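A.,

Following up on our hallway conversation. Structure tokens first:
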């Protein structure tokens, strides 16, 4: 898991949390375990439990869910969850190509988190609150390539899946590789760097 420390009072939108359940829905035992970790209550006459997309969940519970996935499914499970996020999470409007998509990751990341009840990105003012880290995209001039540096509390394999899922929304042939020469949060580094080519 990441070595990045996030600030207290951070919550995650239920839409993002629902991506975890969607990614692992074929593992019913794991889904129930994750609902336990996320402290999702039973609802209705049938007592079913489901992630409410309108609820904001504590980040510490959300990160525990990722630890469970890593323990039970390994890195591939984390990567699969990451690829599901772009299908469900809130992203900025007017994203038309892979460069804009990858450059939007940081804004989208902040749009899906709150700090002490306040949205971490305000689209009307452009104000972004600090406390959860960043995604930084740099295009390689003249090439079908770019890098995404992830400095946040999420696991590197999750971020690899997230970058891949976002890139492939606009360029299905995109390939994402982890550039370990720049360090890795799983090994005590401050960030992970992913190279995207298409």
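Then the amino acids I'd put at each of the 198 positions:
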């Amino acid at each position: 898991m990441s070595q990045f420390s996030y600030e207290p009072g951070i919550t995650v939108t239920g839409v993002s949390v629902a991506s975890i359940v969607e990614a692992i829905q074929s593992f019913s035992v794991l889904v129930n375990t994750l609902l336990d970790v996320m402290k999702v209550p039973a609802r209705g006459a049938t007592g079913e439990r489901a992630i409410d997309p309108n609820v904001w969940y504590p980040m510490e519970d959300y990160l525990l869910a990722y630890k469970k996935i890593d323990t039970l499914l390994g890195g591939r499970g984390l990567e699969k969850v990451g690829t599901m996020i772009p299908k469900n999470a809130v992203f900025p409007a007017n994203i038309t190509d892979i460069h804009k998509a990858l450059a939007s990751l940081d804004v989208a990341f902040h749009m899906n988190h709150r700090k002490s009840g306040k949205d971490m990105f305000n689209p009307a003012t452009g104000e972004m609150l600090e406390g959860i880290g960043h995604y930084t995209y740099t295009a390689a001039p003249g090439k079908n390539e770019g890098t995404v540096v992830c400095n946040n509390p999420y696991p590197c394999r999750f971020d690899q899946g997230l970058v891949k899922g976002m890139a492939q929304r606009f360029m299905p042939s995109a390939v994402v590789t982890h550039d370990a020469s720049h360090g890795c949060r799983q090994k005590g580094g401050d960030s992970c760097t992913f190279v995207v080519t298409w």
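The chain has a mean pLDDT of 90. Curious whether your intuition agrees with the design.

B.
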